[in-house]
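User: I'm preparing a small set of examples for a lab meeting where we compare how different chains pack in three dimensions. I only have the primary sequence for this one, and I'd like the structure in token form so I can line it up with the others. Please keep the answer compact; I'll paste it straight into my notes.
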Amino acid sequence: MCQSCQQSAPTSEPWYTDVLLIENAPGSFSDEIITYSVFKLLDAIFKACRLELILPDKLPEPDALQQFIEEQCRKYGR
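Assistant: Understood. Below is the structure token output for the 78-residue chain.
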């Protein structure tokens, strides 16, 4: 692992660390990777909970996303 990448990892534990160096990414890349990551995480959580929820077509703004998640927790939580 490169020295600068190693310093940005939250821990040195290998199970927690997954460093990916991306060079020459277009300006839109950060928005694309955030959208992809959020949707994949929510999809994995909903599948683990055995919920077949339809995610929004577009990533909501943070406050709306928080509201969406809280609504699902109220609806399906115990």
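A couple of notes for your slides: The two ends are 42 Å apart (CA to CA). Helices lie at 3-8, 29-48, 62-76.

User: Perfect, thanks.
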